[in-house]
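For practice. Supply one:
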Amino acid sequence: MSWTAVLLAGSRPEGDPFARSFGTEIKALIPVAGEPMVLRPVRALLASPHIGQVVVLGQAPAMLEPVLPKDARLVVRESRGTIAETLSAICDDPATPWPVLVTTADHALLTPEMIDEFLAQAEGADVAVAFVESKGLLTRFPDAQRTWLAFGGGRYSGANLFGLGSPRARRAIAQWRSVEEDRKKGLRVLAALGPTLFMGAVLKLRTLHQTAEGLSRKLGIVIRAVEMSDPLAAIDVDKPSDHQLVEAILAARA
C-alpha cells in the first residue's frame, strides 16, 4: 500500500520565542545537528518504501522550499490555520489520495523503521495514533519531559504519527478540534471522550487499547492505538530541553 505523507511545518500566529532564540521565525528551520530540523523527518519519509508522496505544509512555503531536497515525490504547500483545520481540509478534499500519514517537522528522530512499523499496524483503520509507553523512554532518559496520559497498564505519550485511512477520519478530527488548544492537558483531552471512557481512563480501569475501542464505538469508525517499539518515537523538539536531548542522541549516534 502506498501512503501519502503530510508533514506539518507550520508556525504559531503569535510568533515562537523558541524559534526566535535560534534566529528564525519558523520552528521547522531550527538547526538540529547542523541542519534545518525539517530535513530529518522529510528524509525519513522519502526513505520509506511505503510512502508515495510527501506534502510539506506550512505558512511560509517560500522559506521551506530552499532547504528541502529536490525530489519529484516532494511538494510544499501553504497550510491553513490550526492542525485540526488542516486535517479537516485533507479529509474534505475529494482529491486526497488515501491513506494519509501525518507527522510533524519537529519529529527530528523519526526513522524509516518507525514509519514502517507504524504503517504496518495502521493499515485498515480509519484513524491510527502512535504512542510510546513511559517505562521504555524513562529507563533510557529519566529526565525526558513528556506529557503522559495514564491508562490501565501504563502511561503513554503521543509519538506524532497519525494514520488517516479514509474520509471517515473526520469524525475523530472533529473531536480533537474541540480540545485542540488544550491538547497538552491530558484530563481535558480525556474528558472529550465522554463520561464512561473518561472515568475508565482516570480510574485506570481501561487500557489504552480498550479506550481506543470504546472511542471507535462512540464515533462509529475504526480507531487504533499503535504502541511503538522504539521509545525515541515520543521525542520531538518542542522546547530547549528537547533540543539538547535530541542533539545529544544524534551526537551519540554519530
